[in-house]
Amino acid sequence: MICVYVKNSSKISDDIENKLKELCVRFERIPEGKGKEGIIRPSIMEGGSSYNTIESIYNYLDLLESEMTQMREISADACYINSRTGKTC
């Protein structure tokens, strides 16, 4: 599960949430005053990894977008054109 520790009135927090919504990825939003003490905000935690610098957050979001795009291309329920016959499925 992706956990997003947000900071109130933070553009980066808004960017994180908007990107995850755009990617249709499920995540848990943890506002200030909730969750573990001492967590740097904003940050993302997923699978035992933590991303809490601006660079690491945006790198994570870029990688996630790439992985989601690749996964959707592979698992797409779409028609295709057979390159040998020109027929569609």
Number of domains: 1
Unreliable stretches, pLDDT < 50, 5 or more residues?
none
CATH fold descriptor:
Glutaredoxin
* Rounded mean pLDDT score: 89
Taken from the alpha-carbon principal axes, the silhouette is elongated
Write up this protein.
With 89 residues, the chain is of the alpha+beta class. The protein has a single domain (2-74), classed as Glutaredoxin. Helices cover 37% and strands 17% of the residues. It is built from 2 helices and 4 strands. The chain has helices spanning 11-22, 54-74; strands at 2-5, 27-30, 43-46, 49-51. It has a 4-stranded mixed β-sheet. Strand 3 and strand 4 (49-51) form a beta hairpin. Helix 1 (11-22) runs parallel beside helix 2 (54-74). The longest helix is centred in the last third of the chain and has 21 residues, at 54-74. The protein starts with a strand and ends in a 15-residue tail after the last helix. The model has no long low-confidence stretch (mean pLDDT 89).
Secondary structure elements and their pairing?
Elements: E1 2-5, H1 11-22, E2 27-30, E3 43-46, E4 49-51, H2 54-74
Parallel strand pairs: 1-2
Antiparallel strand pairs: 1-3, 3-4
Helix pairs in contact: 1-2
